[in-house]
Input
Amino acid sequence: MPRPPRSDARANRAGILDAARSTLALDPYASVDVIARSAGLSRRTLYGHFDDRDALIRELISTGAQRFNAIAESITDADARIALARLAARLWQEAAHVQVSAALALDEAHVEHTASALAPLRRAVAQLVQRGQDDGSFRTDLAAPTLSRLIEEIARTVVARTDASSSGAANLAVRTVLSIAGLSWRETDELLASHPDITAHPGATASSA
Output
């Protein structure tokens, strides 16, 4: 049975991933040397944990995907409109991770791995879309798989092109997703006015989690 990694090795690995996340958020093409320096480690130490840059990026995508998939699993609203809005908003609470993964996913070299890692999240969106179509909440002029993919692509584009730290970013993400799902801006206004916790600051929504 293999021995578990030592605590300092685990700390180094976590530090590399944190450094890669912050570095790639600024420059998706940052080199291994830049990432290692950001982590305060040598290039040799980094290669002791990851075979190459692609291996590091795949691990970063996988760890980020675990957070996204957990968010999808946590959404329990019976109303598909509220569930989709809450899912979009909670993903924005992981804004830094979302934007790094979006940038990596847009890199053709990692699309396949990203799609596989985010399979649970994609299934959750597909189920929400089907529920919304079945009860008449979402548009039905497009087949459910097509609408799900359209929501995913538009949401990813918004994430990649919007400053996640800007005021109103979560609100924009939620409104964009609901618009693609078929809600009018008036319907979205009414929904968000009735459920202000959806786009409220995370620190103010502890009771609604």
Q: What stands out?
A: The CA atoms of residues 158 and 172 lie 9 Å apart. The chain has a mean pLDDT of 84. The radius of gyration is 19 Å.
